[in-house]
């Protein structure tokens, strides 16, 4: 899993008019994990977004680090990723090294690094595109939508033995999208306003035509057919064009969960990855249910509830239709996966999340509390930057 | 013409008087010119302000005595103080601990500028005391021009930030050294310990005044919202009071404001949102500053014989500023290209330069006219041309918002 990889489209021979072909799924060690974090770069004057990604990349390239540091669509953001990790402890260690290096580099440039799914008051139309052909191309295609999309997420990859196992894991994991959203939610403010959502970031993602859930198929052949149909229409050219909540990543041999807001701390990001790993271990070893297309009947409603109300959301069981507080279901899930968390070394992560869930605390709530006390979003960003600076 | 003016003056006596009407019309014209050059020629608005000021000066507009004094001196000081307060508040001292090369860049560019300008003027056989005075003034760039340009093109990024900080530090050195130089001119002692006394007095009083302003604002911010209009008014009024008090007490008003901003930033690290609230009142003051600079500079008798000397000063200063920034660049976190652009962004001179030349002219009875004869044309050129350079540089650095806006697809 996340090894440096070739593009996820294999050109069919030398014919430039040939349709893209789906990359073969590379097997990877099951239950390995990898984390990507998109982070905000802000100035230390008024704490607005600051276009310093080139300078950060230059300084970070001089430090020996695990994983990778890459530019993102706009020049006020940066993405860091761990290497292939086997445990929560390893993720935490690698994220901690990256965090420490980011803080040191930012200090040298007189800027700050901040987590969170949105910058609370940045003006989207003032952001600048990073000078890279793909980013320019996407900006031209999506126009206004791309300008609205200055948001920051955490992606967690889970290694899968083969392609069919990846699809099975993907559709099982889909039941837990609300859990992931509520636990990571950190984007209540957009354009200077409280959106009343805990995760407003996902509303920006929803505007894209290829967003939402992946098509329901449990066989890679079926998925390849779907991909071929999509590319034939010319709407899709590669897997990168799908902005699904969870998508397969054939070149890594993983599924990639993309609904997390970037948390305010590296510690929380590692804990979320630990939860995903423990959940995956439970699903893999106990095969507790077989996913069905009908599961998706309540998918959008559950997702909306989690975005809107966070840990206070209602969760609708896709099988029984029973309504219960999401917080309760998260605690039940954490209890169920706890033995598997022990096996994969994620007990600490599970306990950390259980404690926060019992207290009803996520980063969105923290941000709102700070704004309630300070009544100045720039000060909230400053305090969030101090929170990011703290070692795990 | 004189009769007509006298008639107007007599007719206007019951109101604010003829000078008020003249200044109001001048500012109205400057505002319109600023808008037009920006809208139709893509030039910085300052070029329009300067052009109107210069035309008024060349046409013999009266009302500004030289060296500056009275209300005009106060307004120019206030304009410089407001800008320096804000730029002083951008300086986080902890940055220099994490990146001492920035401080070195600043010291190098200022020292090199002094040396280069002094040497160039001496090459043209300008007397040492005049060369020394002008070399000190040349160290200062214009925080007002740079801030205005940054606001106009909505710039943000490494070059913008670095240029603003280097400009502020340069202003700090120049104000302190010129104030000390003026103090020395007024003494007959030659012993170095006694010569240090004026430096101590200027710095001491300025630090005290700056600390006073910072304390008042810190106390106010305990119960006032920085985003409120009332806080902005309190801020402006406090700076104005500090400006009025610092100079008579033996300090420097702009230096006090700069130190106030710097101290407030250290003891009150919360974000500064009031510059956005400064609004039209502060903009008007800053614009007035640009007009006065051009007006005063253009009013001076132009001596074509001195033009080569002025050009030499400008050339030496430009090369030294770029050279100093480049020399201190390794390890400072910016690329060579960015360092080059930062050096060019330091070229503007405006109201701060005018204030320093005025101070020196007032203190040096015999050499004052020569200091003004070389210094003022240089400032006039660098107000307009420097603003154009700074705008160009921010575009080249891709740090201006114009034409580059968009967002991202990634999450």
UniProtKB/TrEMBL annotation, chain A:
State the UniProt keywords alphabetically.
Answer: ATP-binding, Ligase, Nucleotide-binding
EC number annotated for this UniProt entry: 6.3.2.2
> Does the UniProt entry include the keyword ATP-binding?
yes
Catalyzed reaction equations: L-cysteine + L-glutamate + ATP = gamma-L-glutamyl-L-cysteine + ADP + phosphate + H(+)
Superkingdom as given in the UniProt entry: Bacteria
Q: What Pfam families does this protein's entry cite?
A: GCS2 (PF04107)
Molecular functions (GO terms): ATP binding; glutamate-cysteine ligase activity
Q: Name one GO biological process term.
A: modified amino acid biosynthetic process
The cross-references to Gene3D superfamilies, in alphabetical order and at most eight, read:
3.30.590.20
> What family, per the record?
Belongs to the glutamate--cysteine ligase type 2 family. YbdK subfamily.
Q: What does this protein do?
A: ATP-dependent carboxylate-amine ligase which exhibits weak glutamate--cysteine ligase activity.
What is the protein name given in its UniProt record? Putative glutamate--cysteine ligase 2
Question: What organism does the UniProt record list as the source?
Answer: Ramlibacter algicola
Automatic annotation (TrEMBL), chain B:
What InterPro entries does the database record attribute to this sequence? Answer: Cation/H_exchanger_TM, Na+/solute_symporter_sf
The domain of life is: Bacteria
Q: Which Pfam families match?
A: Na_H_Exchanger (PF00999)
User: Transmembrane stretches, by residue range?
Assistant: 20-37, 46-66, 72-89, 101-121, 133-151, 163-183, 195-221, 233-258, 278-298, 339-365, 371-394
* Alphabetized GO MF terms: antiporter activity
One GO term under biological process is: proton transmembrane transport
Q: Where in the cell is it found?
A: Membrane
Q: Name one GO cellular component term.
A: membrane
Which residues belong to any copy of the Cation/H+ exchanger transmembrane domain?
27-382
The way it spans or sits in the membrane comes to: Multi-pass membrane protein
Q: Which UniProt keywords apply?
A: Membrane, Transmembrane, Transmembrane helix
Protein name (database record)? Cation:proton antiporter
């Amino acid at each position: 899993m996340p090894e440096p990889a070739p593009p996820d489209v294999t050109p069919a021979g030398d014919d430039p008019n040939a349709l893209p072909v789906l990359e073969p799924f590379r097997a990877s060690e099951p239950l390995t994990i990898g984390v990507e974090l998109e982070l905000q770069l802000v100035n230390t004057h008024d704490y607005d977004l600051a276009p310093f990604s080139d300078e950060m990349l230059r300084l970070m390239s001089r430090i020996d680090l695990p994983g990778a540091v890459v530019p993102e669509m706009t020049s006020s953001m940066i993405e860091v990723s761990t290497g292939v990790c086997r445990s929560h402890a390893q993720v935490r260690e690698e994220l901690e090294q990256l965090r420490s290096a980011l803080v040191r580099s930012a200090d040298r440039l007189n800027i700050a690094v901040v987590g969170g799914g949105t910058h609370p008051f940045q003006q989207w139309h003032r952001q600048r595109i990073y000078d890279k052909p793909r980013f320019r191309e996407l900006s031209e295609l999506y126009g206004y939508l791309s300008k609205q999309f200055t948001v920051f997420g955490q992606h967690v990859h889970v290694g899968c033995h083969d392609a069919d196992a990846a699809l099975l894991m993907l559709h099982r994991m889909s039941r837990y999208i609300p859990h992931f959203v509520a636990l990571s939610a950190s984007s209540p403010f957009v354009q200077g306003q409280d959106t009343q959502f805990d995760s407003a970031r996902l509303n920006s993602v929803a505007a894209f035509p290829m967003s939402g859930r992946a098509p329901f198929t449990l066989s890679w052949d079926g998925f390849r057919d779907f991909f071929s149909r999509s590319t034939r229409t010319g709407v899709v050219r590669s897997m990168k064009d799908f902005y699904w909540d969870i998508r397969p990543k054939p070149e890594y041999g993983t599924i990639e969960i993309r609904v997390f807001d970037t948390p305010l701390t590296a510690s929380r990001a590692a804990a979320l990855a630990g939860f995903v790993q423990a959940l995956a271990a439970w699903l893999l070893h106990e095969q507790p249910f077989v996913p069905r297309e009908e599961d998706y009947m309540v998918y959008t409603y559950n997702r909306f509830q989690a975005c809107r109300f966070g840990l206070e959301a209602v969760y609708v069981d896709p099988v029984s239709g029973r309504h219960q507080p999401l917080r309760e279901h998260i605690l039940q899930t954490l209890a169920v996966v706890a033995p598997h968390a022990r096996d994969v070394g994620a007990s600490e992560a599970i306990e950390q999340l259980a404690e926060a869930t019992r207290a009803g605390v996520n980063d969105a709530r923290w941000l709102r509390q700070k704004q309630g006390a300070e009544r100045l979003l720039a000060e909230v960003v400053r305090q969030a930057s101090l929170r990011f600076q703290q070692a795990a | 013409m004189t009769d007509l003016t006298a008639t107007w003056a007599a007719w206007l006596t019951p109101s604010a008087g003829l000078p008020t009407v003249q200044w109001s019309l001048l500012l109205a014209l400057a505002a319109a010119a600023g808008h037009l050059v920006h809208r139709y020629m893509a030039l910085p608005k300052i070029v329009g302000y300067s052009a109107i000021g210069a035309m008024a000066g060349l046409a013999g507009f009266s009302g500004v005595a030289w060296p500056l004094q009275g209300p005009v001196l106060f307004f120019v000081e206030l304009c410089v103080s407001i800008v320096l307060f804000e730029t002083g508040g951008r300086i986080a001292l902890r940055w220099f601990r994490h990146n001492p090369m920035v401080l070195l860049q600043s010291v190098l560019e200022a020292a090199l500028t002094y040396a280069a300008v002094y040497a160039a003027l001496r090459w043209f056989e300008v007397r040492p005391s005049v060369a020394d005075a002008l070399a000190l003034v040349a160290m200062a760039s214009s925080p007002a021009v740079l801030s205005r340009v940054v606001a106009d093109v909505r710039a943000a990024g490494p070059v913008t930030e670095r240029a603003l900080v280097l400009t502020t530090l340069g202003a700090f050195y120049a104000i302190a050294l010129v104030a000390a130089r003026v103090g020395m001119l007024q003494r007959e002692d030659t012993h170095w310990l006694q010569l240090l006394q004026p430096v101590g007095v200027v710095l001491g009083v300025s630090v005290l005044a700056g600390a006073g302003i910072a304390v008042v604002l810190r106390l106010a911010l305990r119960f006032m919202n920085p985003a409120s209009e009332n806080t902005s008014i309190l801020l402006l009024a406090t700076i104005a009071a500090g400006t009025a008090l610092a100079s008579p007490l033996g300090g420097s008003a702009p230096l006090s404001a700069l130190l106030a901003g710097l101290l407030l930033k250290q003891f009150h690290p919360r974000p500064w949102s009031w510059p956005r609230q400064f609004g039209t009142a502060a903009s008007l003051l800053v614009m007035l500053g640009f007009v006065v600079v051009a007006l005063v500079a253009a009013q001076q008798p132009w001596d074509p014989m001195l033009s080569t000397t002025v050009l030499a000063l400008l050339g030496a200063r430009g090369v030294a500023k770029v050279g100093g920034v480049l020399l201190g660049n390794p390890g400072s976190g910016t690329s060579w290209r960015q360092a080059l652009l930062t050096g060019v962004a330091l070229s503007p001179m405006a109201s701060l330069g005018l204030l320093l030349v005025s101070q020196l002219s007032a203190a040096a009875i015999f050499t004052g006219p020569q200091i003004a004869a070389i210094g003022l044309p240089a400032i006039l050129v660098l107000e307009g041309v420097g603003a154009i350079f700074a705008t160009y540089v921010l575009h080249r650095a891709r740090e201006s918002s114009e034409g580059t806006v968009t967002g991202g697809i990634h999450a």
